[in-house]
Amino acid sequence: MRNEQEALEAEWRKIGLSGPARRALVEAKLFRISDLRKITLDELTDLHGMGKSSIARIRQIMDAKKIRFR
């Protein structure tokens, strides 16, 4: 189970997100940066465990990859 969770969090770990932020994204069925197209910024902000620094890092990566929220 733990290895499975770590595999699901792998992309988020690569960009340096905290454990609570990684778990929140995986619980929301968001496994890759590209999956963030499915949600709004408000929905991301509302995820339990998602802090300001994690959101800033996600937005930085999204901008670099030219990915936008819904």
How does this structure look, described?
The protein is mainly alpha-helical and 70 residues long. The protein has one domain (2-64): DNA polymerase, domain 1, CATH 1.10.150. 57% of the residues lie in helices and 0% in strands. It is globular, with a radius of gyration of 11 Å. The N and C termini lie far apart (31 Å).
Write a brief structural summary:
This protein is mostly helical. It has 5 helices and no strands.
What summary fits the major beta sheet? none
Tally of helical segments? 5
CATH architecture field: Orthogonal Bundle
| Radius of gyration over all CA atoms, rounded | 11 Å
> Could you name the CATH topology?
DNA polymerase, domain 1
Decide which structural class fits the backbone: mainly alpha
- Listing every helix as H and every strand as E from the N terminus to the C terminus, the arrangement reads HHHHH
* Share of helix, binned: 55-70%
Question: Termini separation (Å)?
Answer: 31 Å
So what's the overall shape?
Answer: globular
Key descriptive features of the protein:
70 residues, DNA polymerase, domain 1, 57% helix, mainly alpha, globular
Summarize the SSE layout with pairings:
Blueprint: H1 2-8, H2 10-14, H3 19-27, H4 41-46, H5 52-64
